[in-house]
Amino acid sequence: MQQEPNSGGQQPPTEGRAGAQTMSPQDERTWSVLAHLSVLLVFVSLMPFGALLIWLIYKDRSEKVRFHALQALWYQIAWVVILAAYAFISLVLTLLLIGIFMFFLLPVLVLIPVIHGCYAAYQVSQGVDYRYPYIADKIEGARSVA
């Protein structure tokens, strides 16, 4: 049986992933920026889902997009846990009448990941390979072990 020649002049994938598609540098930068900007979904209570969706779709196409989307995903999950814990503690202390003022700080705390995520998106759009403190090291450490 004869094999058909590779049509279109495209080279077969050289990586271990079958069917992996390459992305242009501009597309990589765009999707990396969008992964970081998905933090803006906090305003509609869907914060980590944008980064998760980008990671699921593009993880096999680009190492850069995979890294930035996974980094943004874990950063956003960490902030969801922090904000939920803070809201719970505020509620408990409010029931004891000593934590009523903690609820006034909650909108300010929500702005921290939004501002930091927008800063990360800006840095990536400028060509800087932005790394969240602690999270990027954990992601790379897990990748090197696997």
Low-confidence region ranges: 3-19
Largest sheet: none
Helix content: 55-70%
Shape by Cα distribution: elongated
Structural class: mainly alpha
Strand content: under 5%
Count of individual helical segments? 5
Give the C-alpha Rg.
20 Å
What's the count of strands? 0
Q: Please report the distance between the alpha carbons of the first and last residues.
A: 38 Å
What number of domains?
1
Query: Please, what is the average pLDDT?
Result: 82
Order of helices and strands: HHHHH
Task: Note down, in words, how this protein is organized.
- The relative contact order is 0.13.
- The protein has one domain (23-145).
- It is an all-alpha fold.
- α1 runs antiparallel to α4 and α3 packs across α5.
- The protein is built from five helices and no strands.
- It has helices at 25-37, 47-58, 63-95, 102-125, 135-145.
Question: TL;DR?
Answer:
This protein is an all-alpha fold. It has five helices and no strands.
List keywords for this structure.
single chain; 146 residues; mainly alpha; 5 helices; 64% helix; disordered N terminus
